[in-house]
Amino acid sequence: MNPLLATGATRALLALEDGTTYEGLSAGAPGETFGELVFNTSMSGYQEVVTDPSYAGQVVAFTYPQIGNYGVCAADMQSDGVDLAGVVVSDMCHTPNNWRSEGTLPDFLVEHGIVAIECVDTRELTLRVREAGTMRCAISTEDLDPSSLVERVKAAPSISETNWVAKVSCPEPYEVTAKVDLDHPRRTHKVVALDCGEKRGILHGLVGVGLDVRVVPWDTPADKILAMHPEGVFLSNGPGDPRELPQPAETAAQLIGKVPVFGICLGHQMISQAAGAAIEKLPYGHHGGNQPVMNLLSGMVEVTAQNHNYGLEFGSIGELVPELSGGDDVVAAWKAASTADLRFWTRRHIAPVVRSERFGRIRLTHVNLNDGTPEGIQFLDAPCFSVQYHPEASPGPHDATYLFEAFRRLIEGVPDYLAIDVREGRRF
Description:
Blueprint: E1 11-16, E2 21-26, E3 32-40, H1 46-50, E4 58-62, E5 66-67, E6 86-88, E7 91-92, H2 105-111, E8 115-118, H3 122-132, E9 135-140, H4 146-155, H5 164-168, E10 174-176, E11 189-195, H6 200-208, E12 211-217, H7 222-227, E13 232-235, H8 246-255, E14 261-264, H9 266-274, E15 278-295, E16 301-313, H10 328-337, H11 343-348, E17 353-356, E18 360-368, E19 374-379, E20 384-387, H12 402-411
Parallel strand pairs: 3-4, 4-6, 5-7, 6-8, 11-12, 11-13, 13-14, 14-20
Antiparallel strand pairs: 1-2, 1-9, 2-8, 3-9, 10-12, 15-16, 15-18, 17-18, 18-19, 19-20
Helix pairs in contact: 8-9
């Protein structure tokens, strides 16, 4: 037994649906919670993770050993509340030391009713999830019987059975005004953002490049959005299984070609579905701030922040266009490889193009270098592009913030809107 369990503190139990259990101590609100277990590899930014609406319905295990050491503060909130199901850490810091701190993470979790557990070997837990895949779990300070809690986990609903987007989207429209650089003033543009669980960091990225944003609920139909006469439409990140959300995908389909469109994370998946693509569930997803992604247009590698369990199957959109994908020999080599690993294209520095039945030519623009999954697409016959990762990076690196400027350039009709040197802000 962990010696900390003998201190008299409130005990807690983590149970996985594969039968594994972990004893620990309560590090948040008392009670119990059920959700889908994922792990996050970020070394900082735990408050941004905890307040990210995309984690609704999920229990987040932090791989970094100590969490909470710099406290929490209102400025780091990514939403008004906390929607994730629970938190798992190895060592929870109860006495933070930082000039920005306005309180402790454990107190913050208690305030928002979030059940959490510490004193768990999160390295062993992460390896288990990597080997077995994402699974249902529970944290309880009430039911400390391992066999009982495991059986209750097995009977719990999967994350796909709930419309989490409806739970986290804004109830009414609201507006956020563009930030204007007085030293280098330029025209602002009116954009509508479909809120499927949008992070504040993304809103900051949009207004930071001079976009006036009207945020609308997730189920706002395309005709109402177009009636607002936007110069562009943004499709946000969000939680849950995109395969169970046909309405936003159809909304995206009705917008593409009529107005410039940009999507991030769930928004990327909506756009992909609109193009006829299949969506797959990844074994354990991408969650953290250290995912390497190659930009196939520039050949540069971006270190990115990511948070998703689902992804596009690029080949399901349509057949490759040989003349835009390196020629017949390269296409034949791809087919002969019989693999979905898109690092085939990173090694050749080719951005392949497939043909969608509904929207014409679509180019693969970004690829994950860890597992070869698709990370970005660009429509060549309509003003639309999207990425699977988070360019706002809250938390995470800022390599991909150029994508907000790319959206502005798309709205302004710049033909090579994605041709931005991320190091110096110039075209490559």
